[in-house]
Amino acid sequence: MRPSEDPDLQSILFRLFLSMYLITVLGNLLIILAVSSDSHLHTPMYFFLTNLSLADTGFISTTVPKMIVDIQTHSRFIFSVGCLTQMSPFPFFGCMDYMLLTVMAYDQFVAIYHSLHYPDIMNSHLSDFLILVSFLLSLLDFQLHNLMILKL
Protein backbone atom coordinates (compact mmCIF):
# COMPACT_ATOMS: atom_id res chain seq x y z
CA MET A 1 0.00 0.00 0.00
CA ARG A 2 1.34 3.40 -0.99
CA PRO A 3 1.45 6.12 1.69
CA SER A 4 -1.18 8.12 -0.22
CA GLU A 5 -3.64 5.22 0.12
CA ASP A 6 -3.28 4.93 3.90
CA PRO A 7 -6.70 5.84 5.44
CA ASP A 8 -5.12 7.34 8.55
CA LEU A 9 -2.85 9.56 6.47
CA GLN A 10 -5.74 10.61 4.23
CA SER A 11 -7.77 11.62 7.27
CA ILE A 12 -4.89 13.73 8.56
CA LEU A 13 -4.36 15.30 5.13
CA PHE A 14 -8.08 16.03 4.80
CA ARG A 15 -8.19 17.83 8.15
CA LEU A 16 -4.93 19.66 7.48
CA PHE A 17 -5.90 20.97 4.04
CA LEU A 18 -9.46 21.80 5.11
CA SER A 19 -8.26 23.79 8.11
CA MET A 20 -5.60 25.63 6.07
CA TYR A 21 -8.17 26.45 3.39
CA LEU A 22 -10.74 27.73 5.90
CA ILE A 23 -8.15 29.79 7.78
CA THR A 24 -6.93 31.36 4.53
CA VAL A 25 -10.41 32.19 3.25
CA LEU A 26 -11.61 33.53 6.62
CA GLY A 27 -8.42 35.57 7.05
CA ASN A 28 -8.85 37.17 3.63
CA LEU A 29 -12.52 37.87 4.31
CA LEU A 30 -11.62 39.47 7.64
CA ILE A 31 -9.11 41.74 5.88
CA ILE A 32 -11.77 42.76 3.38
CA LEU A 33 -14.32 43.36 6.14
CA ALA A 34 -11.90 45.36 8.28
CA VAL A 35 -10.84 47.61 5.40
CA SER A 36 -14.38 48.21 4.18
CA SER A 37 -15.80 48.93 7.63
CA ASP A 38 -13.19 51.44 8.86
CA SER A 39 -13.12 54.76 7.01
CA HIS A 40 -9.52 55.41 8.18
CA LEU A 41 -8.42 52.47 6.04
CA HIS A 42 -9.80 53.86 2.79
CA THR A 43 -6.34 54.63 1.41
CA PRO A 44 -4.63 53.26 -1.72
CA MET A 45 -2.52 50.78 0.27
CA TYR A 46 -5.57 49.18 1.87
CA PHE A 47 -7.50 49.32 -1.41
CA PHE A 48 -4.71 47.28 -2.99
CA LEU A 49 -4.64 44.95 0.04
CA THR A 50 -8.38 44.32 -0.34
CA ASN A 51 -7.91 43.42 -4.00
CA LEU A 52 -4.98 41.18 -3.10
CA SER A 53 -7.16 39.39 -0.55
CA LEU A 54 -9.82 38.85 -3.20
CA ALA A 55 -7.25 37.49 -5.64
CA ASP A 56 -5.74 35.21 -2.98
CA THR A 57 -9.18 33.83 -2.13
CA GLY A 58 -9.78 33.09 -5.80
CA PHE A 59 -6.29 31.61 -6.18
CA ILE A 60 -6.66 29.13 -3.35
CA SER A 61 -10.27 28.34 -4.26
CA THR A 62 -9.34 27.08 -7.74
CA THR A 63 -7.57 23.90 -6.64
CA VAL A 64 -7.87 23.22 -2.92
CA PRO A 65 -11.62 22.40 -2.71
CA LYS A 66 -11.29 19.76 -5.45
CA MET A 67 -8.25 18.31 -3.70
CA ILE A 68 -10.11 18.16 -0.39
CA VAL A 69 -13.04 16.36 -2.04
CA ASP A 70 -10.66 13.95 -3.77
CA ILE A 71 -8.91 13.13 -0.50
CA GLN A 72 -12.24 12.48 1.20
CA THR A 73 -13.73 10.37 -1.63
CA HIS A 74 -10.45 8.57 -2.46
CA SER A 75 -10.83 9.69 -6.05
CA ARG A 76 -7.90 10.36 -8.37
CA PHE A 77 -9.83 10.90 -11.58
CA ILE A 78 -10.67 14.15 -13.34
CA PHE A 79 -12.12 14.71 -16.79
CA SER A 80 -10.25 16.91 -19.26
CA VAL A 81 -13.03 19.51 -19.15
CA GLY A 82 -12.92 19.52 -15.34
CA CYS A 83 -9.16 19.91 -15.42
CA LEU A 84 -9.37 22.86 -17.81
CA THR A 85 -12.17 24.40 -15.76
CA GLN A 86 -10.14 24.05 -12.60
CA MET A 87 -6.81 25.12 -14.02
CA SER A 88 -8.01 28.02 -16.18
CA PRO A 89 -8.46 30.55 -13.35
CA PHE A 90 -5.25 29.40 -11.64
CA PRO A 91 -2.80 31.41 -13.81
CA PHE A 92 -5.20 34.37 -13.81
CA PHE A 93 -5.26 34.65 -10.02
CA GLY A 94 -1.55 33.86 -9.78
CA CYS A 95 -0.67 36.64 -12.19
CA MET A 96 -3.13 38.95 -10.45
CA ASP A 97 -1.31 38.33 -7.16
CA TYR A 98 2.04 39.27 -8.70
CA MET A 99 0.63 42.32 -10.43
CA LEU A 100 -1.01 43.56 -7.23
CA LEU A 101 2.19 43.02 -5.26
CA THR A 102 4.01 45.10 -7.87
CA VAL A 103 1.39 47.84 -7.60
CA MET A 104 1.68 47.75 -3.80
CA ALA A 105 5.47 48.06 -4.09
CA TYR A 106 5.02 51.11 -6.33
CA ASP A 107 2.57 52.57 -3.81
CA GLN A 108 5.14 52.16 -1.02
CA PHE A 109 7.88 53.61 -3.21
CA VAL A 110 5.80 56.73 -3.79
CA ALA A 111 4.88 56.92 -0.10
CA ILE A 112 8.54 56.78 0.98
CA TYR A 113 10.38 58.75 -1.69
CA HIS A 114 7.69 61.27 -2.62
CA SER A 115 5.87 61.54 0.69
CA LEU A 116 4.91 65.19 0.31
CA HIS A 117 3.34 64.56 -3.11
CA TYR A 118 1.87 61.16 -2.21
CA PRO A 119 -1.80 62.31 -2.00
CA ASP A 120 -1.49 64.02 -5.38
CA ILE A 121 0.26 61.11 -7.08
CA MET A 122 -1.68 58.18 -5.60
CA ASN A 123 -5.21 59.48 -6.00
CA SER A 124 -8.26 57.29 -6.44
CA HIS A 125 -8.13 57.57 -10.23
CA LEU A 126 -4.58 56.21 -10.40
CA SER A 127 -5.41 53.46 -7.88
CA ASP A 128 -8.40 52.37 -9.96
CA PHE A 129 -6.32 52.54 -13.12
CA LEU A 130 -3.55 50.40 -11.61
CA ILE A 131 -6.09 47.77 -10.50
CA LEU A 132 -7.64 47.80 -13.98
CA VAL A 133 -4.24 47.39 -15.65
CA SER A 134 -3.40 44.53 -13.26
CA PHE A 135 -6.70 42.85 -14.10
CA LEU A 136 -6.30 43.30 -17.86
CA LEU A 137 -2.70 42.06 -17.91
CA SER A 138 -3.70 39.06 -15.80
CA LEU A 139 -6.56 38.38 -18.20
CA LEU A 140 -4.15 38.55 -21.15
CA ASP A 141 -1.75 36.17 -19.40
CA PHE A 142 -4.67 33.86 -18.60
CA GLN A 143 -5.73 33.78 -22.25
CA LEU A 144 -2.18 33.05 -23.41
CA HIS A 145 -1.96 30.13 -20.97
CA ASN A 146 -5.30 28.79 -22.21
CA LEU A 147 -4.18 29.00 -25.84
CA MET A 148 -0.98 27.12 -25.06
CA ILE A 149 -2.82 24.43 -23.08
CA LEU A 150 -5.51 23.97 -25.74
CA LYS A 151 -2.84 23.50 -28.42
CA LEU A 152 -1.58 20.48 -26.45
UniProtKB/TrEMBL annotation:
Keyword tags: G-protein coupled receptor, Membrane, Receptor, Transducer, Transmembrane, Transmembrane helix
Q: Name one Pfam family in it.
A: 7tm_1
The record's annotation in Gene3D superfamilies points to: Rhodopsin 7-helix transmembrane proteins
User: How does the entry describe its membrane topology?
Assistant: Multi-pass membrane protein
> Annotated Gene Ontology MF terms?
G protein-coupled receptor activity
* Cellular localisation: Membrane
Per UniProt, residues of the G-protein coupled receptors family 1 profile domain are: 27-152
Does ATP-binding show up as a keyword for this record? no
**Transmembrane parts of this sequence:** 12-34, 46-69, 129-150
Q: Give GO cellular component annotations, separated by semicolons.
A: membrane
Q: Carries keyword Membrane? A: yes
Protein's name in the database: Olfactory receptor 7E24
